[in-house]
Amino acid sequence: MNPPERDGKLLQMPSPAAPAAPSAPATEPDTDVFAVFGAEPEVQAYAMAKYSRSALSMRQSLEEINQQKAEKFLNTFYFQYGHRSIADLAHIAFAIERLSILAAIILVDEQRWDGQERSTRYQDFRKSGYFVPDFAGDRAAEQTYRAAADALFDDYDALSQAMFRYLAERTPRPPEMKSEQYERTLRARAFDFARYLLPLATNTSLGQIVNARTLESQVSRLLSSPYAEVRRLGEKLKQAASAPAYNVNRERWRQFIEVEIAGRDEGTGREAYELFLKPVRPAPTLVKYAEPSPYRVETERELAQAARELVGKAPIAFAPAVDLLDDEPLEIELAATLLYEHAAHPYRQVRQAVEALTPAQRKEITDLGVRHRTRHDELLRAFAAGQRLRFDILMDIGGFRDMHRHRRCIQILQPFTALHGYDTPPEIEEAGQGERYRAAMQHAASAIGQLQERSGHYLLPLATRQRTLFKMDFAEAVYISELRTGPAGHFSYRNIAYAMYEAVAKRHPALAEYFRVTDVREPVDLLKR
């Protein structure tokens, strides 16, 4: 048998009479996994990005990098070469305090976002105060605004107390439950009703942890907002990413250095001070070019005008609280969604208007969505189309804030408006508080009518209905329906989530068994959380 050849050369075959000596078994290195702590966000992003450009380990990379090298690297690869995924590796924690609920809703409207906001169930918002827009010296308008906001907070306080008494009368304390726990649980349930009167001006606080790419997009979006408060919020976020971060250990370390180190050796103390207490700026390089987006500003202005021309004068058609939409051609969905975001009408009504257009006219609408786009702009969220399950949902703003947390689905929010009316929980009527509740809503509506549109939005109570388009896959529909129908949840979103389940089960009966929902028609034990 002829020996085999490779690339025209004879391979050397071991002789049967003289087998090769056995080699020592190869030892493969174990996988090394470790957490990283103490690296500045941009330095850590640089070190992780080097995996694709260097054979150095993370430890070696972090030891040899400094802030100057990281800044130079990011300027080259992030800004010049457009490798924006690098910014996904720099995560920053922010505390954002004393912003209005209106601004908070806009702030957290990011697909890639992690955070928590003050809960209207577990905190009493009477002492939080409220945001006051700039009325440019119009004292009469400001007085109208303040009087309406103060009245809503007074009614919020009164309603929370009345609902607590009502719930306590209906729900006696079990002998095994401590009085403190009983009262705390019923207070939380009472706040579920009282929150309907909180205005969007109510001050709240939240914490967010975002990567630098999301932060850059978030800042640009906020700076492009029509609300002055939101634009200032964008500026403050940008400044916070560039300024020295709050160091939770600073005071303790400073005292230790001054007493234990500098007191013994002044030179070593200075060195320790510079080493441990140097200012850390989270992402000064990655957000320095975050500016208002002309693409977003101009596009939204033109789409709003197109929506006014196409459906703006038509009466708002009736639509159920949860409407599972029919399938449609992608070009119809894109044009309808682009307009829906700037209308007050149900999606079906907008779609019917779009379907009545010629193909060329529909293309003009879609073209508006990209006309001002540059090579650095991501497409607007309305272009995230093609999901099988799409729900047009009309619900109170308070309940929407809970549904807004679901990031796996695409959410297209319509503008704040009083046109859809407000919700009234039946328990408020049962507790004998219906008349006061309606008077509070009417007083707020009267004040809103006297103010300019955007300043008036701040007085919209959380009972006001908000229309939003939710697009998702089957798994997300199951997840939302199961999670949000739980008996410990707020009754507002429980009803919406159950209606979502019912709509899918009706259209796809063979899939209904895969939902593990709680029937919202069953009585709820108010003392279980």
Topology (elements, then pairings):
Layout: E1 5-6, E2 9-10, H1 41-49, H2 58-64, H3 67-80, E3 91-100, H4 101-107, E4 114-117, H5 139-170, H6 179-194, E5 203-211, H7 212-223, H8 228-242, H9 250-261, H10 266-276, H11 294-312, E6 322-324, H12 330-340, H13 347-355, H14 359-368, E7 389-396, H15 397-403, E8 410-413, H16 426-430, H17 434-450, H18 453-457, E9 465-472, H19 474-484, H20 491-507
Antiparallel strand pairs: 1-2, 3-5, 4-5, 6-7, 7-9, 8-9
Helix pairs in contact: 1-3, 5-6, 5-17, 7-8, 9-10, 12-13, 12-14, 19-20
Could you explain the architecture of this structure?
By secondary structure, the chain is α+β, with helices and mostly antiparallel strands. Among the domains are: 41-89; 294-431 and 462-514, 2-Layer Sandwich (Alpha-Beta Plaits), CATH 3.30.70.3180. Helix content is 47%, strand content 9%. The chain contains 20 helices and 9 strands. The protein has helices at residues 41-49, 58-64, 67-80, 101-107, 139-170, 179-194, 212-223, 228-242, 250-261, 266-276, 294-312, 330-340, 347-355, 359-368, 397-403, 426-430, 434-450, 453-457, 474-484, 491-507; strands at 5-6, 9-10, 91-100, 114-117, 203-211, 322-324, 389-396, 410-413, 465-472. Strands 6-7-9-8 form a 4-stranded antiparallel sheet. The protein has a 3-stranded antiparallel sheet with strand order 3-5-4. Strand 1 (5-6) and strand 2 (9-10) form a beta hairpin. Helix 9 (250-261) packs antiparallel against helix 10 (266-276). The termini are far apart.
